[in-house]
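Table S5 (text form). Sequence records supplied for joint modeling of the two-component complex.
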Amino acid sequence: MNVRTGLIKIVTFLGGIYFFLEFVLPGTLFGVKIDAYHDQISNGFITVGAMAAGLGLINLLMQHGSRIVFRRREWVYSAALLTGLAIMIVVTYNDWSGTRRVAEEVAEITRLADFAERIRSDREKRVEGVLPVAERNRALRDAAERVLARVEGEIQGFDLDRFGAGSIDHGLARRYLAEASAGASAVRAALETVTAPGTDLTPNTAAARALRGVADSWRNLRNLEYEHSTPKHVYRLLFEGLFVSLGSAMFSLLGFYIAAAAYRAFRVRSAESSLMMIAAVLVMLGQIPFGVWIWSGLPEVRLWLLEVPNSAAFRAITIGAGVAGLVMAFRMWFSIESESFDGEG
Amino acid sequence: MPGFENATPGVLVIMALMIGPVLYYIRAARRRDLYVRRLAGVDAIDEAAGRSAELGRPLSFCTGITNVSPVLYACLGVLYYVARKAARYKSRLLLPQNNPEVMAIAEDVLRDAYRAEGRSAQFDPRDVRFLSEEQFAFAAGYIGLVQRERVAGAFLFGHFAAESLILAEAGQQAGAMQVGASVSPEQVAFFIASCDYTLIGEELFAASAYLTREPIQLGSLYGQDRAKLFLLLMIVAGVGIATANSLWPELDLTNLDALLHLGWSLGL
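The corresponding structure-token record, covering 613 residues in total, follows.
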């Protein structure tokens, strides 16, 4: 056994025993919290798996790139595939960055709300080593002023007409604008009192609540605006309009294929296929009103066929495959490899 | 034993019943030959490989949407065998892929098989093709590949979902000899209708042992069969207890799990 093979076997065994013990042991054993790092360990395994994600992309580029470069047969299709890939990467990146931009804008306001609450909680808990409350409140007010000035500036110049007068989105946008505007005024009113002398920090809570209100309205408005932007339209066109539709088209092929496969399967060639055809006819007739019209007992027959012989066969297959899978997993865990895969061949 | 959560007596007994016979029969298989009944679907693998060589058309081996799992390892045993046959007969073997992790492993197995046959130069990494991770995009890519390359033999081994019939019908239309194997009962029906031969459920796990006749694989196969026998006995006993309880409630028979718990609490 060489070093590489030995190392792989050790890592496999340790990984297996970790998940086995994680299943059988409780979270805390003899006072030791053994599940404290489970999330990090699981994420580690996911990260190792994610390293393989780029392999598919590399394979596609190599396969189709070489076909284009050397002008092999049907290189045009490869060019179409890689062009589609490139366009989708650009469009998806645009969509992701647009969504992130909105989230960052809102996060700025939410952070201010958190800060306002933190000033109060630090005071109540008598946290030491922080700036005096008055100074922190002044910083809060200055930062909030800057953010509010930007929000209000954008509210002023907001073009409602882009949603189309009278549309549902137009009404929603108008409502969000009004809420954001009212929220900004509420924040200002609360901030007027936060820096006033005294120990009462109730205005901080009011300012935090008002800031969260502004954040919610602003998020809704920006999301609505983004939904009407060109990048989102292009993304929807390519993803929902093209990709999802093509997937549905492929799925719909199943209907035709089932008919073709059923024709082959139900041809009476042997005793088994005759039995299968009779069972299929009974199940189909038991499903439709015409079958009930022929004989009212057919739904009962259908149900019996599905729940008794069919379930028995399903369970037999499932149990057999489950046991075989368990044994294979055990062999993988203990690296009881076949000679073909032991790495020594 | 205090503190254990899922390590119930039932779990431990079942694990012992599963693993004990496997270890015993792996040792037994090293000493004597173990008989495995004939599997028509597995015999057809040789036939398909030969047919592909005669026609001068490629083979394809598809693991569907299988992730890295015990099912994949069972499929890799068959892939290794098919790849060696393809290398020996100088046939091309196409590996359409849906999962990048599986692709890396399958490519390695393919390379090893060509090397084992002394045909490393014949191995072409471009035959391992990543199509898509999306189920139906993968199916569309597979249809195109099978039709364009006019495959002579198609092997569909692994985990499949709604795309199973699309893949199998594509091979059927291309005139390929097909062997399907799935552990999902729902998809087995589609394979029976569309493939020339079908391996049902655990036969997928048995295929590799049957082909290679290696002691480890044969021993595992024998072991898991004995383990299933234990399970069958437990099912029969459970049915008997439940029936007796239902017919004569005054007997107040306890079930198997409760018996095991009782034994556990008594420290037996």
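Note: The radius of gyration of chain A is 33 Å.
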